[in-house]
Each structure stands twice: as structure tokens, then as C-alpha cells.
């Protein structure tokens, strides 16, 4: 994997794209939860997440 051009920090240890607390996904999709309208950070989620295989 090459280094990302924009550093996106990630604290999700079991995501396959997390390497040393940085996201190495080629694209990042952040979506709103529920009704599609986020009022704060808790109302969003990273749709790029994929669980790391053991």
C-alpha cells in the first residue's frame, strides 16, 4: 500500500485499512446514520470500514 495523500487518522484497530493509526483505504466514504442528517460526529460513520481478517 502506498501512503495516503491526505492523512486520515483512524483509531479502529480491527479495520483492515488501519495501519499505525492511519487510514490506507484508496477512498473514504463517510455517511450519516439513520435519517441521513448528521447533527454531530456521533451521527456519522465510516462506510469504508472492513474488518481485518485474523
List the helices and strands and how they pair.
Elements: E1 18-19, E2 22-23, E3 30-32, E4 44-46
Antiparallel strand pairs: 1-2, 3-4
Which word captures the global form? globular
Decide which structural class fits the backbone.
mainly beta
What does the main sheet amount to? 2 strands, antiparallel
- Following the backbone from N to C, one meets helices and strands in this order, namely EEEE
Strand fraction: 15-25%
Low-confidence stretches: none
Helix content: under 10%
The figure for the number of domains is 1
Average pLDDT figure? 91
Radius of gyration: 12 Å
For the terminal residues, how far apart are their CA atoms? 19 Å
Work out the helix count.
Answer: 0
Strand order of the largest sheet: 1-2
Total count of strands: 4
Please give a handful of descriptors for the protein shown.
about 55 residues; mainly beta; two-stranded antiparallel sheet; 4 strands; about 0% helix; globular
Describe the structure.
The protein is mainly β. The chain has one domain (1-54). Helices cover 0% and strands 19% of the residues. The chain has no helices and four strands. It has strands at residues 18-19, 22-23, 30-32, 44-46. The strands form two sheets. The chain has a two-stranded antiparallel ribbon with strand order 1-2. It is globular. It starts with 17 loop residues before the first strand and ends in an 8-residue tail after the last strand.
